[in-house]
Amino acid sequence: MFVSAVFLIVTSVLYVTQPSMLLASASAQGNTVDNNNDNYSRQMSSPGAVTKPPINTNTVSVPLTAAAYDRIKGCSSDQHTPTNPVTYLTHFSCGHVNILSNGTVLRKFLLHIQENVPVTVTPDNPSVGVNAWVFNGTIPGPTMRVTQGDHVQITVWNDPAAKHAHSLHMHSIHSGDMDGMMGPAGNIPPGGKYTYNFVAQPYGIYPYHCHMQPVESHINHGLYGMIIIDPSKPRPQAKEMVMMLNGYNLVDFKKEMDPVAPPTVAQLQKNFSDATQQDQGDNQIYSVNGVAFYYRDNPIHLVTGQKYRIYLANMVEFDPENSFHMHGNMFYYVPSGSQLKPSMYNDILLLGQGDRGVIEFNYTFPGVFMFHAHINRITDRGWLGFFDVTRPREMGTMSSMGKDIESLVFPTAPEPVTTSPTPTSLIIGQQVSSPKTEAALTTTKENNNTTTASSSSSSSSPFPFLQ
Hints:
By secondary structure, this protein is an alpha+beta fold. Helix content is 13%, strand content 29%. The chain has ten helices and 24 strands. The protein has helices at residues 21-28, 66-73, 85-88, 215-220, 250-254, 265-270, 272-275, 294-297, 376-379, 435-447; strands at residues 14-15, 33-34, 59-60, 96-99, 105-120, 127-135, 144-147, 151-158, 169-170, 193-199, 204-209, 224-230, 239-248, 285-288, 300-303, 308-314, 321-326, 331-335, 344-346, 348-352, 356-361, 367-372, 384-390, 424-428. The strands form five sheets. A six-stranded mixed beta sheet has the order 1-15-23-22-17-20. Strands 4, 5, 6, 8, 10 and 24 form a six-stranded mixed beta sheet that branches. A hairpin with an 8-residue loop joins strand 18 (331-335) and strand 19 (344-346).
C-alpha cells in the first residue's frame, strides 16, 4: 500500500486512525455482512449533495477472535505511556488479555492513583496548572476498551503517598460489592489496592470515577475516565476518537471542599448565613480531553466523505449541564452507545453530568469548522475546538498539516507526541513536599510534556503496570 506523508514543521498534526481496512479484509476472506434494513445500507450521497446521510448498521456476522477484534478496535500496543490531548484522542487501552480454558476472554487492567501530580490545564505562556489526582498519570484517565461478555479485572492501587482514600465506580451492570461504594471496594486507603471483577455488560459507553465523598471534589481533581464496552460484533466501519468534556473548579483545588449535605437544625440556629451559603459555584476552566483550547490551537484533521465516530462523555462537575455543537454539519447520536441505531439527528446535544453517547458523522464540504459547547460561558473558558476538513489526499491548514489521513497504514498505534515546552507559572492546589512529588515535577520538566504529568517512574508498582 502506497503511503504518503507530508510534514511541515509548524505545529503537531492531530489525526484520527481506525483500522477499518481490517473489516474489509475480513469480508474478502469469507465473512458476510448483515443488512438489517435496506434503507440503512444505501451508499452515501455523492459529494456536494446536501442530503441526510443514511444510517449504516452493517456489522460483521461471523465471530472474531479477541486478537482480531482488538486490531479492528485500534487497541494501542503501548499501554504504559501516559497520554496527552494528541494521543488520548485515539488511544484505546484494551488490557492484558488471557483466553481461559472455557474460551472466556479475561482482560486485566491496573489503575494507579496518585495525588498532587502537576498537570497543565491552559495553553497560555506562562500557563495555569493544578495539583491533580490522577489515574495512571493523566487527566482524563485511560480509555479502557473491552467487549461485551469479557471477564474484566481492574486493580486499583492507591499510592502510599496519597492523603485520601479512593475508589472506583463504573457505570454499567455489575454486583453490589463491585460498585465502589460499600466495603473494601468503596474505601481503598493509601498504599492499598483492590481488584474489581465483573463481566462486561451491556455494550455501551460508560464513565468511571472515584466515588469517595465529596464525590464532586474527587472528580474535579481528575479521578475519572471512560470505559467502552463494544458489542459482540463490531460496529460499522468508521474512524474513531474519544472526547471527554471536563472542567476545573480552582476554588476546590485551592481549598478542598467539605462533603455536601443538607444543613442541620443546629447549624441553622447557630449561623443561618454560613449554613445557607452557596457552594463552590461553577468552573473557571473547561476543556475537551484535559487542556483548555487545545483543539482550537491544534485543529483535528478530517477528510470529506469519511465516516467518523466520537465516543463522547461529559464529566464536568459544578455545572448541571454541558453541550456539544458541531458547525457546518449534522450528526447521528446514540445515547449511552447502547444501541446500534441512533435516536436523533441534530447538530447540537445537551448533556447532563455523566451523560455520554456515540456521535457519527461525515463532512460533505471542506473547510474549518468549530465544535464547542453551545453555552457561551463554557466555550469562552476553554471548551472550543476546530475540525480542519480537507478533501482526501489534501493536507490541512497551517495549524493541522501533516499526514494524509487516507494514506495511513492500519492498524497503527498512536505515537506519543511531545509538544513545545510551556513554562507553568502557577500551580493551584495542595503541594506536598516529598521526594515523590519532586520526582513527578522533575519528570514533567524533563519530558517537556505540557499537558500531562507522568508519575509511573516516581513509584514502584507491586505488579505489572497495565492500563
